[in-house]
Specification:
This protein is an all-alpha fold and 192 residues long. Helices cover 77% and strands 0% of the residues. The protein has 9 helices and no strands.
């Protein structure tokens, strides 16, 4: 039951993009087409799940026992960068077509602050290893949900009569704010 609550909380109630505004750059930059948004979402979910699995043991078995938890930022950034590089090399070798489809998305994940936020929140909340993996997958699923929803709205806006001053990034940010307000409604489900 605890794992289900972590999943629902991370993907809907405390969605990284719409609640904490982590990962806004790819959310706005890659959400112009649904196919791009879906590819970015899946790649981010994969990396976030791997990040949770890799950073938890490093923090709990290396940083804490050696009394250097203050190095978590540096350690997590190195782990995330290395993971993304290994994933990129593996995909390039195993599936060249998938590698071409993901294109710039994999290197973009390295600089996605949502991935670092995942590792930091995981430590702050003192999740177990299994809880961390569920949390990592759920945050990625929430990111995918938000970016795909935004891409669908933006594709529809191409055919809408949007006033000139609101076209482009302006309307995108307004919609992001409205989506964040809508997702706040999920928080009422837990409290109510």
């Amino acid at each position: 039951m605890e794992l289900i609550l972590i999943f629902i909380s991370a993907s809907l109630i405390n969605n990284f993009v719409l609640t904490y505004f982590l990962g806004i750059c790819p959310f706005v930059g890659v959400s112009n087409k649904t196919e791009n948004a879906l590819n970015m979402g899946f790649a981010t979910t994969f990396v976030m799940t791997l990040t949770a699995a890799a950073t938890w043991p490093i923090y709990n078995f290396v940083l804490v026992p050696f009394k250097v938890p203050f190095l978590q930022y540096v350690a997590f950034i190195i782990i995330i960068a290395a993971l993304v590089q290994f994933v990129e090399m593996y995909i390039r070798k195993a599936s060249p077509s998938l590698y071409r489809a993901l294109g710039i998305f994999l290197p973009l994940i390295t600089t996605n602050c949502a991935v670092l936020g995942l590792a930091l929140f995981m430590v702050m909340r003192e999740y177990s290893f299994l809880e961390s993996i569920v949390f990592g997958f759920a945050t990625g699923a929430g990111f995918t949900l938000a970016i795909v929803m935004m891409s669908g709205i933006r594709e529809e806006l191409e055919f809408a009569d949007v006033p000139k001053h609101f076209q482009g990034i302006s309307i995108t940010l307004i919609i992001a704010g409205m989506m964040a307000l809508a997702f706040m409604g999920f928080a009422g489900l837990i409290r109510g």
